Amino acid sequence: MSSLSLAVRDSSTMLRRNLLHARRYPSMTLNLLLSPVVLLLLFVYIFGDVMSAGIGNGGADRSAYLAYLVPGILLMTIGGTTIGSAVSVATDMTEGIIARFRTMAIHRGSVLIGHVVGSVLQCVMSVVLVGAVAVAIGFRATDATALDWLLAVGLLTLVSVALTWIAVGMGLSSPNAEAASNNALPLMVLPFLSSAFVPVDAMPGWFRPVAEYQPFTPAIETLRGLLLGTEIGHNGWLAVVWCLALAVLGYVWSTSRFAREPK
């Protein structure tokens, strides 16, 4: 077999391994998935009228705030799901299975590829489930065309790949699973500091740079524009640049850490 065939075969095996782990131990995925669902219901049904009045020139409209909120919740779902990847990688590193893999005749990069592809698939499934909850409570993207939906799916997948590589690097750099969970927590927290819940223009002037110059805000604004028809402006290419930069950074970080021989 060629080296490419071996890499594909071994990566597929590692992918099945990670998906089996996720199926047998679903508590981590369910816990991370529950957070965005709870936040969605909380902000829509408890704070929806107040928040919509604050950002809609005094007009309280819960359905309008639901439409505004969903894109940010979907990005938050991806950030939360990738925390599970950091924990899974750290667990593999500390429990000795990676040391055993190093002694076997398998493609070295297949371990990381299996984690990344498995995490991206979990991110997509999580987004679908959270999106289904949003639709069930009234979210509609009636202005989105087929091309808009295709671009939205592509953006969500690109964000998933980028954040997963960063999470894998965090997992490889952590001494244990608990530390990996804590180190990856910013992937869940950063959306709170973005335009997910309120527009950047409504934030205090001293805080706006924090919301503007981070990866989640352009991604959220781009997704919002694709689904709701709002102005995207320069956020589209900013989101792509952020995703590509994070993916490359995470890949280089992860592969360099993985290549180190255990002490």
TrEMBL record:
Keywords: Antibiotic resistance, Cell membrane, Membrane, Transmembrane, Transmembrane helix, Transport. The keyword Repressor does not apply. It is a multi-pass membrane protein. The chain crosses the membrane at residues 25-48, 68-90, 111-137, 149-172, 184-207, 236-254. Residues 27-261 form the ABC transmembrane type-2 domain. It comes from the Bacteria. Belongs to the ABC-2 integral membrane protein family. This is Transport permease protein.
